[in-house]
Design brief:
By secondary structure, the protein is α/β, with parallel strands linked by helices. It has two domains: about 180 residues, Medium-chain alcohol dehydrogenases, catalytic domain (Quinone Oxidoreductase, Chain A, domain 1), CATH 3.90.180.10; about 140 residues, NAD(P)-binding Rossmann-like Domain (Rossmann fold, 3-Layer(aba) Sandwich). Helices cover about 25% and strands about 25% of the residues. It has eleven helices and 18 strands. The strands form four sheets. Strands 3, 5, 6, 9, 10, 17 and 18 form a seven-stranded mixed beta sheet that branches. It has a six-stranded parallel beta sheet with strand order 13-12-11-14-15-16, sandwiched between helices. Helix 4 packs across helix 10. The radius of gyration is 20 Å and the shape is globular. It starts with a strand and ends in a 9-residue tail after the last strand. The protein binds nicotinamide-adenine-dinucleotide (NAD) and zinc ion (ZN) (2 copies). The site of one zinc ion has 8 residues, from helix 2.
């Protein structure tokens, strides 16, 4: 089969690899769409250390069941499916409690980090355990389905924030995750959602996707603007989707006393913590990792038009265009959002 192989850092090539043979509990999926994630771009150049070559990356995928392992029930050849990017063991204490994103033996599809290496979906076929596979509704296009992973991340972040409805919210960062988190906060019943970024183009997306107010600022200016908009009180919840020193600091300054700061962004490994502010203002800092069972909800919300992903898809391109798209994404070209690769086609297509 054709696969997009990261043979060394910053070097992707179309390679011929054997079609994976499904293990007894696996499903073999013929890939019809696989999104390029920011983490793939940060793995491609070696900065994250989580895509040690050689590796076929890609964890945001959808396709058609091509074969099932001998012990698999509930799936048949021809089913349209997607799968969770997290491969959980199903038997550890966390898995048994349903906290599969915290699994002791957690692996991620398309990741190679030293502890393990698991081939991903920038290929014609990928084999994954049946327990992480979900059937797709007929009306969901494969390219949209490839966004389910990111939508689930956003829904999970809102779920761990334990909103009751009626809250004011600030989303910091209007990247892919922030723009989906904005929509998830709306679905959760937030009365007002502010979105902040330092890139005006991204904020245009936020406005189109339902932000009540967009704020082109960071740091003290962002805090001033939020305090002015909330009568000096601060928002009930901040959903932080960048992960830098200045954005974490702003998140803590913008939340009200007793409010919640949910940390999704993790682009830097370490940040400073203004400890006394957090303690004396009794702020809850809540981490959010991947997703945990939100796929069915994500499908329903997308089918109902309550979470929109089409405006966020920049292109659907053939696998052979993968190296060029990685270069463009890596160079930070503005206006690029999600690029989805379809290994079944030789030419680009519209949705
Ligand atoms: N917790 C999880 O499970 C999870 C899952 C996926 C991604 N992430 C993380 O979420 C973050 C966002 O991912 P993404 O795919 O949306 O990335 P992205 O690159 O598409 O978006 C990041 C956004 O942050 C903005 N930004 C940068 N500096 C800023 C600042 N000082 N103030 C305000 N905005 C600023 C950028 O302009 C951009 O719009 C990353 O750190 C990523 O690693 C976490
Ligand atoms: Zn991803
Ligand atoms: Zn487990």
């Amino acid at each position: 089969m054709n696969a997009l192989l990261l043979s060394e850092y910053k070097h992707l090539e179309i390679a011929t690899l054997p079609v994976p043979v499904p293990e007894p509990f696996d499903v073999l999926v013929q890939v019809a769409a696989c999104g390029i994630c920011g983490s793939d771009v940060h793995g491609y150049d070696g900065t994250s250390g989580r895509r040690i070559p050689p590796i076929v990356m890609g964890h945001e995928a959808a396709g058609i069941v091509a074969a099932v392992g001998s012990e698999v029930s509930g799936f048949a050849v021809g089913d349209r499916v997607t799968f969770d990017s997290t491969v959980y063991c199903g038997v550890c204490d966390f898995c048994r409690k349903g906290e599969v994103n915290l699994c002791d033996d957690r692996q991620v599809v398309g990741v190679s980090c030293g502890d393990y290496s698991r081939a991903g979906a920038f290929a014609e076929y990928v084999a994954v355990p049946a327990r992480i596979v979900y059937k797709l509704p007929d009306n969901l296009a494969f390219a949209e389905a490839a966004m389910l992973e990111a939508v689930s991340v956003a829904l999970h972040a809102v779920a761990v924030s334990e909103l009751k409805g009626g809250e004011t919210a600030l989303v910091i960062g209007a990247g892919m995750i922030g723009l989906l988190t904005l929509q998830a906060a709306r679905v959760a019943g937030c009365s007002q959602v502010f979105v902040a970024d330092i890139d005006a183009t991204r904020l245009k997306f936020a406005a189109d996707l339902g932000a009540d107010k967009t704020i082109l600022a960071s740091g003290a200016e962002l805090t001033r603007e939020i305090l002015r908009s909330t009568g000096g009180r601060g928002v009930d919840v901040v959903l932080e989707a960048v992960g830098r020193n200045e954005t974490i600091a702003a998140a803590i300054d913008c939340v009200r006393k007793g409010g919640t700061v949910t940390l999704i962004g993790n682009i830097t490994p370490q940040v400073n913590l203004p400890l006394q502010k957090v303690v004396s203002r009794q702020i809850r800092l809540q981490g959010s990792c991947a997703s945990c069972g939100e796929y069915p909800q994500a499908m329903e919300l997308m089918a109902a038009g309550k979470i929109r992903v089409r405006p966020l898809i920049t292109a659907v391109a053939p696998l052979s265009d993968g190296p060029a798209w990685f270069d463009r994404l890596h160079s930070g070209e503005p206006n690029l959002m999600k690029v989805v690769l379809d290994p079944r086609t030789d030419s680009g297509q519209s949705l």
